[in-house]
């Protein structure tokens, strides 16, 4: 567990620094949101379904197996949420370039997932 915390802290720092560099180099602003109301509703509905699925899956897996590692649910959930948000930003809000930050987040979450699998396999 200590290894996961250390890797998590390193990835948080890498995410923060990487996001700052990407925002400066690519002039990414959060102020411009040209997404129309229909696209916002679609994104809200999709993220709501994902959250409900995550909650139901988490409760089911934890009640069946008390020693289940919650990272196996949380990290894929964050990956899928970042992918949905990135796709919606790419499709409906391209001028803001927020989708680039979402792709970067997916990359970091994938590294975290690989690290969690690797640490569990070594134990």
In percent, how helical is the residue content? over 70%
In N-to-C order, the SSE pattern is: HHHH
Q: Report how far apart the termini are.
A: 11 Å
How many separate domains make up the residues? 1
Specify Rg, calculated over alpha carbons. Answer: 17 Å
- pLDDT averaged residue by residue: 90
- Show unreliable segments: none
Counting DSSP E segments of at least 2 residues, the number of strands comes to 0
Instruction: Please report the number of helical segments.
Output: 4
> What fraction of the residues are assigned to beta strands by DSSP?
under 5%
Sheet of most strands? none
Structural class: mainly alpha
Inertia-based shape:
flat
Q: What structural keywords apply?
A:
mainly alpha, 4 helices, 123 residues
Polypeptide structure, described:
The protein has 123 residues and is mainly α. The chain has one domain (2-122). 81% of the residues lie in helices and 0% in strands. The protein has helices spanning 2-26, 37-64, 71-92, 98-122. Helix 1 packs antiparallel against helix 4 (98-122), helix 2 runs antiparallel to helix 3 (71-92) and helix 3 packs antiparallel against helix 4 (98-122). The protein is flat and about 45 Å long. The chain starts with a helix and ends with a helix.
């Amino acid at each position: 567990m200590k290894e996961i915390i250390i890797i998590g802290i390193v990835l948080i720092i890498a995410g923060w620094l990487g996001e700052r560099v990407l925002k400066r180099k690519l002039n990414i602003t959060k102020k411009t949101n040209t997404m129309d109301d229909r696209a916002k509703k679609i994104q809200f509905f999709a993220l709501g379904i994902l959250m409900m699925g995550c909650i139901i899956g988490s409760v089911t897996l934890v009640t069946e197996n008390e020693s289940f590692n919650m990272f196996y649910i949380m990290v894929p959930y964050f990956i899928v949420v970042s992918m949905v948000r990135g796709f919606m930003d790419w499709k409906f809000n391209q001028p803001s370039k927020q989708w680039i930050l979402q792709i970067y987040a997916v990359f970091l979450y994938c590294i975290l997932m690989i690290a969690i699998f690797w640490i569990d396999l070594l134990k």
